[in-house]
Amino acid sequence: MRTIQVLHIGEFGKQKDYPYFYSNTFKAHSGSFHEAITIPHKHDFFVLVLFTKGHGTHEIDFHSYPIRPGSVFFMYPGQTHHWEFSEDTDGYVFFHTQEFYEFQYTDRSIHSFPFYYSAQNPPCLYPEKAELKRLTDLFSGIYTEYRGADFMKMQRIGSLLDLLYIELSRMYLGKNTVESPVPAVYTRKIRILETLIERYYVSEKAPSFYAEKMHVSAKHLNRMVKTSLRKTTSDLIAERVILEAKRLLVHSPHSFTETARELGYEDYAYFSRIFKQKTGVTPSEFVGRYQ
């Protein structure tokens, strides 16, 4: 077993003048970085992919999604994923940092788009044929601009990116069970909550801890989470713990007992019961099925 590699945006592409943005066709990208993208890995940037040809599977945090012509995938920083795809697979891919978008659009956050409200939201979209034509034109325009050297190149890419995200948001809200609109204040609060959970989930598993950190009541925090994600605060905490448990069980060299301890559980039997309650299988059964 191995640790999960974290890929940085500067490792991709030849245009070192733009370490905050990268674009390519999927075929060229996969040809250059095939080994890196077909084993489980993470990014420290946002990823968007449109497939125009081929088929396969995209696994994101232990959930599998079909790759087919017209499928779009949104990748959040920190998610673990890998691709399996046929030789004829092609399309467009681009990466960008959070700062690249928010530097140009200071009046809003990248998380104002519904697919980036939360890491809990569905990471894929399967547009209709008419919708796909509009998306393909925008993806192609970004790729063409990136390959060129025209005046104000990156500013134009930023504008096309914003148009693409707006177009995708309209389609996404029409096809996924994301509340529309989620109040902007709730979106910001969910981001704060997820950031806090990311920081403290090993040692702090009680919703009251996070409510106190956010200066709200536990009841109000739960109401915001339910409105935004149709889950409870306890669900978010537990899901983050279980996700990390899965990652460690599959990718780390630690024993099951060491994994439990790393997640804040001194009693492995108790950890195993929690894991089975949330997943339906024991840690050893999960590893066996995944492998």
Can you put this structure into words, describing what you see?
With 291 residues, the protein is of the alpha+beta class. The protein has 2 domains: 5-175, Regulatory protein AraC (Jelly Rolls, Sandwich), CATH 2.60.120.280; 184-290, Homeodomain-like (Arc Repressor Mutant, subunit A). It is 49% helix and 16% strand. The protein is built from 12 helices and 10 strands. The strands form 3 sheets. It has a 5-stranded antiparallel sheet with strand order 2-9-4-7-10. It has a 3-stranded antiparallel sheet with strand order 6-5-8, with no helix packed on it. It has a two-stranded parallel sheet with strand order 1-3. The longest helix has 23 residues, at 153-175. It is globular, with a radius of gyration of 20 Å. The relative contact order is 0.10.
* Helix count, DSSP H or I runs of 4 or more residues: 12
The level of helicity is 40-55%
Distance between the termini: 11 Å
Main beta-sheet annotation: 5 strands, antiparallel
| CATH class categorisation of the largest domain | Mainly Beta
Strand neighbour order, sheet with most strands: 2-9-4-7-10
Beta-strand segment tally: 10
CATH topological fold name of the largest domain: Jelly Rolls
Tell me the radius of gyration: 20 Å
Q: Structural class, please?
A: alpha+beta
Mean pLDDT: 90
Number of structural domains: 2
CATH architecture of the largest domain, please? Sandwich
Low-confidence stretches: none
Shape: globular
Q: CATH superfamily of the largest domain, please?
A: Regulatory protein AraC
User: Which band does the percent of strand residues land in?
Assistant: 15-25%
Q: What's the helix-strand series? A: EEHHEEEEEEEHEHHHHHHHHH
